Amino acid sequence: MPTISSYGQAIASTTIALQQLLAAAPAKLQVTARTPDAARDGISGASVNLFLYRDDLTGYRDGHEEPGTTHNIAELFYLLSAYPGDASDADAVSHRAYGTARAVVQQHAVLTVPLGDQHTNVQIRSQSLSTENLTSLWLASEAPLRLCFGIIVTFTVSG
């Protein structure tokens, strides 16, 4: 279990593990982890992009730990966007990339993430985003709206 002092490393390792999971899909997706406005920099062909836009840490006690010890539930909120191979997307390749990525997330409810010499299991689930959330995210990024969905990753952090 990651500690609060290694929370930054846990976030980075989770993002990399999620990126590798998506890239290993049978469709051989190109996967980036960038801000939406930079998602296509240096990329040709269809791709998907992971953008971590929010995290939440919620403290809890289960009653079995020493006094003063707490745990946190970490939730990482990603926007996964699909990009076509060309401007017209006439062959709907972005739709295939989107569907492949969504299927990978649905098929892998738990992902093992390496953290140094240890591993932790994180829970993954997809999330449909409201029009309000989509509008806020895409307006803030100043990038054109793309086919996308949310991914929520949850794990426990000690301390």
UniProtKB/TrEMBL annotation:
Residue ranges occupied by any Pvc16 N-terminal domain in the UniProt entry: 17-154
InterPro entries, alphabetized: Pvc16_N (IPR025351)
Protein name stated in the entry: Pvc16 N-terminal domain-containing protein
UniProt source species: Mycetocola miduiensis
